[in-house]
Design brief:
The complex is a heterotrimer. Chain A is built from nine helices and eleven strands. By secondary structure, chain A is an alpha/beta fold. Chain A has one domain: Rossmann fold, CATH 3.40.50. Chain A has a six-stranded mixed sheet, with helices on both faces. In chain A, strands 1, 2, 3, 5 and 6 form a five-stranded antiparallel sheet that branches. Chain A is globular. Chain A starts with a strand and ends in a 6-residue tail after the last helix. By secondary structure, chain B is mainly α. Chain B has a two-stranded antiparallel ribbon with strand order 1-2. In chain B, α1 packs antiparallel against α8. The chains are: A alpha/beta, B mainly alpha, C mainly alpha. Bound molecules: adenosine-5'-triphosphate and magnesium ion (MG).
Amino acid sequence: MNILETRGLTHDFEGLKVITGVDLQVAEGERHAIIGPNGAGKTTLFNLITGTYTPKGGKVIFKNKDVTGARPHQMVRLGMGRSFQITSTFSRLTAFQNIRMAVLSKRGIRFNIFRFVDKMDDVTRETDEILKRINLDGERNIPASGLSYGKSRSLEISMALATDPEVVMLDEPTAGMSVDETHYAVGLIQRLTEGKTMVIIEHDMDVVFSLADRITVLHHGEILASGAPGEIRKNPKVKEAYLGEMEI
Amino acid sequence: MDATTAMYVAQGIHGLAYGMVLFLLASGLTLIFGMMGILNMAHASFFMLSAYFCYQFQIWTGNFWLALLFAPVITGFFGILVERFLLRKVQRLGHIGQLILTAGLGLIILEGVKVIWGTESKPVLVPTYLQGLVNLAGMEYPVYRLFIIGISLILLIILSLILYKTRLGMVVRAAVSDADMVNALGINVPVVFMTVFGVGTWMAGVAGVVISPILTVFPGLADQVGMDAFIVVCVGGFGSIGGALLVSIICGLLNSYGVQFFSQLAPILIFIFMVVVLTIRPMGLFGERE
Amino acid sequence: MNKGFKWILWGILIVVLIVYPRLFGIYYTNILVEFGIFALYAISVNLLLGYTGLLTFGHAIFFGVGGYSTALALTHIQGLPLLASLLIGFLSAVLFALILCPMVVRLSGTAFAMLHLAFGLLMYVVTLKLRGITGGEDGIGGFPIPPFSIPGIVSIDMTDPLMFYYFAMIVLVICISFLWFFTKTPFGQIMVGIRDNADRIDYVGFKVSHSKALIYIFAGGFAGVAGSIFALFQNLVSADEFSVLNSFAPIMIIMVGGIASFFGPIFGAGIFALIAELTSRYTERVELVMGLILILVIMYAPMGFLGLVNMARARFFNKEGAS
Ligand SMILES: Nc1ncnc2c1ncn2[C@@H]1O[C@H](COP(=O)(O)OP(=O)(O)OP(=O)(O)O)[C@@H](O)[C@H]1O
Ligand SMILES: [Mg+2]
């Protein structure tokens, strides 16, 4: 069964067509990679699904519900998490506070002005557990802006996961990482997304093939091909689109 | 021509003259904001300072023209010093830093003029040939208001020529719409900033001198006219010279005709206008950025 | 700092506040009341500025609305109890914030600041013009100050400055403690999150506009309480309360005291009161000194007084300064 679907999704920026008639299908529990050259419209597709923009045409179906035009916070509450291509953490808050923000949200603690947040022991415990799992317990009290690049990427990814979403959308989680960092990040993503549905945008083909069990190729805002990694590797159209750009 | 028409014309000239002075003041403010992101709370204080310089020059030399020439130049120079030695140092603190600094400066200028010149208002006299009325095509016009309109128009033309025909102007306009671009072009931004700040305060200085014979020179001058200039900039849109011009003239006319038609309500109207515009378009009528 | 030590500090503070009038006389007692009022006012502004990253040039709206509604209520309603008049000040400011909310919550940065400047100016002019209600330039003065009374138990005369001092201090300390608590709750975390990265807040699952609205209402309401106490204290309200200067005052207090800490504005208000008092002995030109101090602070100590203290602490103890 598909947990996430787009039907004829279309979007343009002042006439510049960026997404045209995209039918994306993501089955429950699937690890779905979206690949495509720079400017193909991958991030825009994410933005349409997660509520950053309202699509100009088409539909987004999430858990059998029409969520077209839902706002980002609504999508999160419905069970979708998202990380960003460009790190977007709370720069002056500590690693702990960053993660705690997501933990609070997950527990539905929003307008609580009646308790000390530092005294919510269960929240603290859960946050610390997450920090430990992502190997950031040593940096617990360091502001996000003071973390190394690799660590801040880990934090970025973990914030998307700390709300415990059913579907997690990762936009180039390994962007800008060194080989070692990438290797570590892949392991981290594998561990954290266990049992979840994952949609990941990725340029690094090694990462794609080690993580994904289904691949969708986006090109000029359209789906060029979609299928198992083996099929995509052999697909002549994909080869053509990528010719000279990337090795598959 | 009957008396009513004559009165309307006279009111119109008054409004236009005040509008043009507002424009001189507001264009500097809006350029400085648009280009440097600086909300210069001391802008109107410079304007007032120049009026005092003008008064002092007249005492020393007895000559209005010398005052008109030198007072704004000294004020502009003062502005350059402020940019170079104060504002530049707090740039990294952003809006709030600049706001506090210029607000502090405004307080100092305000109190400073009180210490030096006292609190009572000082007269500034214009040469006799600029006083009285002139008869043009069967209608009487107040000469000095026409003079203000004329001098402002000349400055407006020069400003437009610089902005639209020179390289400096191109840089300034580019900076107003996208500050990063100028950095990317590798232009010596600090020097451009200093120039813009200097020219902006110089224009405020000119405005201060030309308005002083009408309103006299007193410590409340900055508040009274400065507030109007601020409204002009907000409504016209930060960084928009055209917007500043249009709204200045509307503001000036509203000021002179409003008193006639709505008496009590006139000042409220302009604020309501401001609130409505900003509610619908937070960046102002012609502003591109917030 | 351990817990016991903290309690001792609080105890000392309370004792000092109680015996203060006896030690320093009524003149300095009144200065302390004014200091407290502006501390609360600045703290309410700092909820927006320091915590949420929203600069406003028009918070005097709420201070003024609080003051005017208390004054109007006491003028027109016979036998209104003291606390009710205070509550009216608070609720009117809250109401005003609620009305402005839909217009301001989508904004931030300069647009937010400017729209508030516009609203503030509008309020100022309207107050001057609606003479019939607001008294125009004269303002409203001489309204009855009711005693603080619990029927059948006590009735304390509030026109006695000493008694008013105790009343004002209790209310102010309660309000400030409440706001401090407010910043320590989960919602307080959302505030700083909005300041740091409002866009991301949405993707964590909080709704930025609703959260901003709640902060705005609190900031407005407590500025209203400050204005209300100020009206009772002076037994006078005037249009100056809506003036731009009165909107700038808390921003300056915050900057001087330290924007990055809850207690910064309290120190700022104290420093301002001290400077005003000291300089007024030697010169008429208090504002001149204020202006100079602002420039010096912003150039050499942009994190304010508490920033300096933390730096000094870090240097002497060779450790990270506490926040
Ligand atoms: N907010 C926007 N306004 C205008 N154009 C935009 C906007 N966002 C994206 N675009 C344009 O849409 C196209 C697709 O952009 P998008 O960011 O979705 O590509 P992408 O596939 O994520 O690329 P990359 O691999 O570089 O991240 C690009 O041409 C981009 O310039
Ligand atoms: Mg992208």
